[in-house]
Design goal:
This protein has 162 residues and is of the alpha/beta class. It has helices at 23-34, 41-55, 64-73, 103-113, 116-132, 142-146, and strands spanning 12-16, 37-40, 78-83, 86-91, 94-95, 135-138, 152-155.
Length: 162
């Protein structure tokens, strides 16, 4: 489903802004206050990255297309589940929520995040999740590309010292 096909009855709160502006902190707090789900878009990118590290000798760079192709042809390989409003990342039936928070994943995630095919798949995953739940989501292009029709768009900005 592309952005022009976003269903109008979705309840999506999008939070955008520069790095370090507090987007994730505010999004998590808001989801807790409203008792709705928080989509951690970074966790989806991290899960793609972990897959790449595990399947391409610890190297995502140069393998982005293979990673995207895998998730295109194996849509069941990645699942997002919620337990007590906490997002769980399930990769090939394994909860990898803690495994995606390693320095190795952090170092390689840029290759996945900058690849258009991987980005499109992550966006599709977020849209599919928002079909199931009311959500708060922060991240790159959330209110412009991923959920352009949501009426609940916020932009946060803060000085670096704050």
């Amino acid at each position: 489903m592309n952005s022009s096909q976003q269903k109008p009855n979705l309840f999506v709160i999008s939070i955008d802004g520069p790095a370090g502006s507090g987007k994730s902190t505010i999004a998590k707090q808001l989801s807790q206050m409203l008792k709705i789900e928080y989509i951690d878009s970074g966790a989806i990118y991290r899960t793609f990255t972990l897959f790449g590290l595990n399947n391409f000798n610890g190297q995502c760079q140069g393998n982005e297309q293979k990673i995207a192709d895998h998730f295109k042809s194996h849509s069941e390989a990645l699942k997002i589940e919620y337990q007590n409003h906490t997002q769980k990342m399930i990769l090939m039936d394994e909860d990898v929520s803690s495994k995606i928070r390693t320095p190795e994943v952090t170092e390689q995630i840029k290759h996945i995040a900058n690849d258009i095919d991987c980005r499109n798949l992550v966006n599709e995953t977020m849209r599919a999740t928002a079909q199931k739940y009311a959500v708060v989501i922060d991240g790159r292009d959330i209110g412009t590309i991923v959920f352009p029709k949501t009426p609940y768009k916020f932009y946060l900005d803060a000085k670096a010292e704050i």
